[in-house]
Amino acid sequence: MIRPSRNHPGFWAFVAHRVSGVALALFLPLHFLALGLALESDAALDRFLSAADNPVFKIAEWGLVVLLTVHLCAGLRVMALEFLPWRDSRKGLIGLGAVTAVAVGAIFLLRVG
């Protein structure tokens, strides 16, 4: 049973911020691998980039862009709640962040596809 406090949009914004942060942290080793291959040799980086042309990687790229946007919007929401004097439009900030993440993900799909 979900407690009433966990049924609030603010709780789910908190969860989205934390989960996106953990997912981005899990992505970092792959990113560092790509950077290391770029420093190692052109051929090694080309092999990695040719493997990254796989449709599964393209879907993962889209997920990464959406996760970055979710994390950014949720972080900006937290900063606004901490540093700005108003507190009334919390649900509006959550909705704005969600719409922004969906819009950025859709734009990325249109540009990549």
TrEMBL record:
Cellular component terms per the entry's GO annotation: membrane
Keywords: Heme, Iron, Membrane, Metal-binding, Transmembrane, Transmembrane helix
GO process annotations (BP): tricarboxylic acid cycle
Localization (cell): Membrane
Pfam families tied to this protein: Sdh_cyt
Listed GO MF terms: electron transfer activity; metal ion binding
Superkingdom classification of source: Bacteria
Cofactor entry: heme
TM segment ranges: 21-39, 59-80, 92-110
Role summary: Membrane-anchoring subunit of succinate dehydrogenase (SDH).
Family: Belongs to the cytochrome b560 family.
Alphabetized NCBIfam families for the sequence: succ_dehyd_cytB
Subunit record text: Part of an enzyme complex containing four subunits: a flavoprotein, an iron-sulfur protein, plus two membrane-anchoring proteins, SdhC and SdhD. The complex can form homotrimers.
Protein name in the entry: Succinate dehydrogenase cytochrome b556 subunit
Organism, as annotated: Thalassobaculum fulvum
